[in-house]
Amino acid sequence: MVHNATHQHVRSDLSIDQRLALKTAATRLEKDFEEMFGVETIERFLHSSYEQFANRASIPNFLPLLAERFARQRLRALAKVEGKHNDGKPTVLFLCTHNAGRSQMALGFFTHFAGDAAVAWSGGSEPGTEINPAAIAAMAERGIDISGEYPKPWTDEIVQAADVVITMGCGDACPVFPGRRYEEWKLDDPAGMGVEAVRPIRDDIERRVRELLAELEVPVNA
């Protein structure tokens, strides 16, 4: 099942600070995307992104920023899908069940190695509420900080904008669109594991990411 973005009005239970933060976020997004999309589209994406996190976020004051980051990613994806902007960089989407461990480690390695030469996103079929602490610790041992990431769903435009979709155990819930390159990485789910058990999974992911970058002919940062 793919999570569709539908028009959402701003929730009536928002605090004044949250409303102001969302309005400020909308202004920033409109400035960045005004040449591609109308105000209504931009605000719809921002508000529906907010709804994706509203019922499971542990820090409500962080929600508007979270929504802005996700909306920005989705608008970039939509711009690519609609042919309004395409920088030619390979785009990879990493998907797992909770978007809290495997896909986040893959995203961390990919972004670290590829830098600005390629684009990577991640998502989950049943997004969790936080990144797996053992995954954060294991990646920190490699000098990569994924603590600022957050579990999120995928949306139609994000999947359609990806050149390669890497799935990790989300099974039938993983979205399928014609024309995408799909690859299943069979990896143990690190949920509930300690750092010691997560290390072999992390190392396997690193190896696979390096191989993927080589296949995409993306130069790897040391």
From TrEMBL:
Keyword line: Arsenical resistance
Statement: the UniProt record of this protein carries the keyword Transmembrane helix: no
Annotated ranges, domain Phosphotyrosine protein phosphatase I: 90-215
Domain of life the protein comes from: Bacteria
InterPro entries from the UniProt entry: Phosphatase-like_N (IPR048716), Ptyr_pPase (IPR023485), Ptyr_pPase_sf (IPR036196)
Record-given protein name: Arsenate reductase ArsC
